[in-house]
Design goal:
alpha+beta; Nucleotidyltransferase, domain 5; 2 domains; 7-stranded antiparallel beta sheet; 18 strands; globular
């Protein structure tokens, strides 16, 4: 075992929602107002001299504006940092897409939305023994000098914030129904040594979300349940856009879909890492579709591409693998889908329709995703002697489906029965 210091974010539900709701609403509205005033300032300077003020200059100017003091000073600084980061992201994107739009204003119809408010070290005081945290108000919102919001919270049963090394910041987040607290913490973990000497490869996809080439077996993890959820909840929010923005039904559908997607990806990544530990796999090579979002796959393809959460899944695999002794590597997937994993032939026509791969050189017939995953695996290690890489192994992988009832992955036979 070894000690590792990592950053984790824990969500706490606010137990005294009625007492602090209005106060948090005021802070969330103030954060949006500060963003909008700063965004208007950027537009004015930009229009006059053709330059967007940097973060330091924008902070110096905004400190003299009345809305700055609606929030704790560090919370106001965070809003400006977020705006500057948004403009930087736009600069980077504009190099590839000259039609990209700059950051906009925060508004829902004629109203400002409830923005996330970040409280750094000077803006909160934590009482872990009583599950309470005191959040500072800006001087403009205080009724008296010592005025603050005292939030009582509850985290998951397996989370004890009194055991963390330190809380870096607290964020008040509106989740669409109510306010919740996000605690960004530094924690010490006892992590496992390397899970083993084995190497596995992962091919990320849209139909099969993940295909894993383990040393002895290929495993498919289809995204059927994700597709069903998207279809159901998209229908639930269809045609519900009103004059003042999305309807309550639309917002409910989006939240439910987001929650289900988050659960799916967490369970999927946990399942894969657990399989690696059981199979003594200490290294996992994950395909990375570099520059894929710049590709044009047509109207339908681009829509699927936009919702492809490959970066999110990689992050989940990386931090879960870190805790269990599995090193997760990001590898460029260039040519892995068309190259034969048995002989190296890279004829494009080898990749057939419906995921079929047929090598014209050596005669390998198999699942195209399995072939891609094996190529990812071979980026780290060549196939050791004695492993089964025959047509049957590549063509007939195991399939694990997500079972909604249990919230876990099982083999196709277990789910059907």
């Amino acid at each position: 075992m070894a000690n590792l210091t990592v950053t984790r974010t824990y969500v706490g539900s606010i137990q005294n929602q009625r007492q602090v709701h209005d106060g948090l609403d005021s802070l969330g509205d103030s954060a949006s107002k500060l963003w909008n005033v700063a965004r208007w300032t950027v537009a004015r300077v930009w229009g006059e001299i053709g330059i967007i003020p940097d973060e330091s200059a924008l902070k110096s100017y905004m400190k003299n504006q009345a809305c700055w003091k609606d929030l704790n000073a560090q919370s106001s600084q965070k809003v400006i940092e977020e705006l500057s980061d948004a403009f930087q992201s736009w600069f980077d994107l504009r190099q590839k897409d000259d039609k990209a739009n700059p950051p906009g204003y925060r508004k829902h119809g004629d109203e400002r939305p409830r923005s996330t408010v970040t409280f750094k070290a000077d803006g909160f005081k934590h009482d872990p023994e009583n599950n309470r945290v005191r959040l500072s108000k800006g001087s403009n919102l205080k009724e008296h000098f010592s005025d603050f919001l005292l939030c009582e919270y509850q985290t998951r049963s397996n989370v004890d914030l009194s055991e963390v090394n330190s809380i870096q910041n607290v964020r008040a987040v509106w989740n669409g129904d109510e306010w919740e607290l996000h605690f960004v913490c530094k924690i010490s973990l006892e992590v496992d040594e390397s899970a083993g000497n084995g190497v596995a490869g992962i091919d990320l996809g849209i139909t099969n979300i993940v295909t894993v080439a383990f040393p002895e077996e290929y495993v498919l993890y289809p995204g059927n349940s994700l597709k069903q959820d998207k279809h159901y909840f998209t229908r639930a929010e269809y045609n519900t856009e009103g004059e003042n923005g999305p309807s309550e039904q639309s917002m409910w559908a989006r939240r439910k879909l987001a929650d289900r997607e988050t659960h799916f990806y967490h369970v999927l990544s946990e399942t894969i890492i657990s399989e690696c530990v059981e199979r003594s796999v200490g290294t996992l090579a994950v395909s990375w579709p570099e520059n894929v979002r710049e590709s044009d796959w047509g109207k339908t393809g681009n829509k699927k591409l936009h919702t492809w959460a490959f970066d999110r899944l990689y992050q989940y695999l990386a931090y879960k693998g870190e805790e269990h002794g599995v090193e997760v590597l990001k590898e460029n997937e260039w040519n892995t889908s068309k190259t034969c994993s048995a002989c190296g032939d890279d004829t494009k026509s080898n990749r057939k329709h419906r995921g079929l791969y047929v090598c014209q050189s050596c005669g390998l017939v198999g699942n195209a995703d399995c072939n891609g995953a094996e190529n990812m695996r071979q980026k780290i290690t060549s196939s050791p002697h004695g492993e089964d890489r025959s047509n049957g192994c590549v063509a007939q992988p195991s399939t694990y489906l997500f079972d909604r009832e249990s919230g876990t992955f099982h083999t196709r036979e277990q789910v059907v029965s």
